[in-house]
Structures are given as structure tokens and as C-alpha cells.
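Dear colleagues,

As part of the handover before I leave the project, I'm documenting each prediction I ran so the next person doesn't have to rerun anything. This entry is a single chain, and its sequence is reproduced below.
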Amino acid sequence: MIKPPPRPLPPCDVFRQSADNRFWQDPARYLALHTPLDQHGRYLPYDQLRHRWPPELDPRICWSLVKSARSAQQSTILISEGPTFRCTYLLTPLAQRAITCVDRHTTMAALEHISSHIGENAHFHYLLNDLIEDEAISSSQLEGAATTTKVAKDMLKRNRQPRTPDERMIIGNFRLMQFAWEKRTVPLSVELIAELYAVGVGGIDDSKYSPGIFRLNDDVVVQDGDGNTVHVPPPAVGLKDRLQRLADWINTPHHDLEHADYLHPLIKAIGLHFAVGYEHPFRDGNGRVARALFYWHLFRHGFSAFRYIAISVLLRNAPIKYGRSYLHSEMDEMDLTYFIDYQCSIVMRAVSDFLTTYKQTVSDALSFDRWLEQSTMFEKLTDKQKAIFQVALNGIDKEFTAVNVKENLECSYNTASAALNGLAAQGALEKNKVGREWVFTLRDRLTLRQMFHEQ
């Protein structure tokens, strides 16, 4: 467990109480620590900093000097009324890099620029829909869903009904993310938070989750893997009032360049993520709602590419670090910088992964076009058949039905069915009956090379 840092000494007491220790023997070594960041530009918590200070220095004086430097540069974030959300943060170099990354690569204009490089290749829609599924699946897995990614994707792509509570959780989270996108123009309210929750957990286990209902008592705690209580949420009494103040703060146009308390939407979205997780307004499933609201806020401010950027994939891979970023902020006088910096690092990696996938898609599209032009198939395939064939060859999807082709290529069911049957007739796809529907899969590549005389 993380131990809270010592209470820092007031600046005047740092010098007064140091008279009896070794401070005056080498004051320069102490005063060099009067900075918010370490020598590598990191905003580290006490439990990491204390191992980096020379052992002959008094750790409480060291910490007091660091806190003094940080306090001088911090700004208030979240609601300034009431103790629950009286938080501070410092805009670190890491956060500034994340803001630049988001501004450059995730706006609607950036997404249109990406699409222009893909051209008219309809298979790009397959890729985007595949990326949309990633956040819903990984967010559910982060909350404990035991379904594998492969099984979950198969369920979503084929519109198969969920068979287990874990699969119902993934379907619920998929609907939640879709709902967050649909509600991106609606101001935040207590009612919207409850509605988001109801969409995300409804039908999973209603007696456990109580869809749309805020917790009414104080028997909800957060525990670590060893069963230790690491967070006790604020009391249920006054919960809706606190959430309303949070909504009022979110709806304040801090993104306006003329606003005296300007705050970038990314930092504000992370603050919203933290606040909902800290409040734990529901009996279960709070993490899903907190992350969905993070996305909702970015959608609301035009960062449309976040529909295809999955932060939960990375959070799921390091859940302990995710949890610690909460605890470091809570234990250090609600200094949100720890949580903000961690989330910013996740966002930059997630955006980088998205851009890597996009660049690979462009490369694959060009390679496919060259291959198709050299094969005997070029004149035989329609545009939609080319899209399906390319998706299959590149492994974006492995199984195709008329239903999922219809949704991905935005065409009629009959057009989708005709495209698939045409590819099967030409030997590109195999056709098998699974249950009551036809499922099409790519034939083995050796056979394809022989059939289409790949050069």
C-alpha cells in the first residue's frame, strides 16, 4: 500500500526547525530541491522522490521544499466550492506535450486529413469500426470482464447475443460509448450521468448495478488486489448536489481563449474522469462511466478521433499504475497533477498507436492496389468487393456476414450479400453455414496466389 507523504512544514518553519539538523552545513544541497520537478522533468510523488534524495538529508525538509515550489505554481482545478473537489494541478511539460499531440492529431480536421490519404477505399470504415470496439472491450476487461478480446470482437461484429454476464458487460460498454458520442452536444447534468450509467450497465445484473440509481448509503469502498481498502468515497448525503456542482464546472466555457481561467479540454476531461472515480456515485461500474465521460467531454469539444483511440487498452495493461495515480493525488492534498500526468502519458501512447495503425493502413492500401492491378481479378471486382477482400487480406476482420458488411460499408443487406457471394463464386472467400447465417472467410493465401497469379 502507498503511505501518505509527511505533512510539509510551512516555509518559515523549514529554516526554523532546521537549526538542529544538518541543513546549515550544506544549505545549497537542500535549496537545489526547491523545484516542482526532478532533474528529469518528472512530477514524482513522495514515495518515489524520497529514494532519490541523498540519505544524509532530512526527508521532511526535502519534501517541504518541493511542496513549497509546487504550491507557488499550482492552479485550482475542479470545483472550488466545498471540500470534495477542492483540487490543484500544475501544467507539467508532459501535459503540455499531450495537449499538443491531441490538438494536432485528434480533431475532426485531422481525421478528415487522415481519411483523404486513404482515398475512396471503403475498407477504412472497417478499420474505424474495429477501433471503436477496442475501447468498449478493454474498458470492460479493466473492470473484470473475463471474455477474451477475440471472442468479444466476434460477438460485436456478428451482432451475436451475449451468453454470459461478462459478454453482457462488453455489450453494455459498447452501447455506453455509442451513447456518449450521440450525447456529445448535450450539456452535462446529474440526469445525463445517471442516463449514461443506465445505458452502460442495464441488463447485466440489475440487482447488483441498479441502473440509473445513485448509491444511497456509504457501504461502497475501493479495495486493492489484497483486499485492503484504498479509497472511501465521500458520503452519499449531498452526492447529487456535488455532482451538480461538478456539472456546472464542466459546462463553464474554460476552453474559451478569452476566459480568465482558461483550461484545455483534455485537462478538463481528465479532471472529470478523476472526479467521477473519486465520488464513486454508483454501487459498481464507476470506472466505465468515468472513462466514458472523459470521452464524452473530448467529443463535445471536437476531438472526434477519440472515437477510435482506446485509452483502456493501455490502462488495462497496467492497472496498478492507474490505481496509484488516483491514490497519489488523493493522499497528497488532492493534487491532481499525478493523475493528470499519468493520463496524459496514456493519451499520447494511445494517439501514437492510432497513427501507427493509420500509416500501416495507408501502406496496406497501396500494396493491395498494386497486387490487384497485377492479378486477374481487377476487372471482376466491384468497389465493395475490393474493400471486403482487402480487409480480409490485411487481417482487419476474419469472418464476414451480410449483416456486418451492411453496417461497415453502409449499404443494403442485398448489396452486402451479393458482394460476399460474388467473392465466394470467384474463389476468394469460403462460405459456410454457422447456425442460421452464412459466414464467409478468406481462403488460404497459397491457393489465392495460384488462382490469381500474383506477380
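The beta strands are 75-77, 87-89, 222-223, 229-231, 399-400, 429-434, 437-442. Residues 11-73 form one domain.

All the best with the project,
I.
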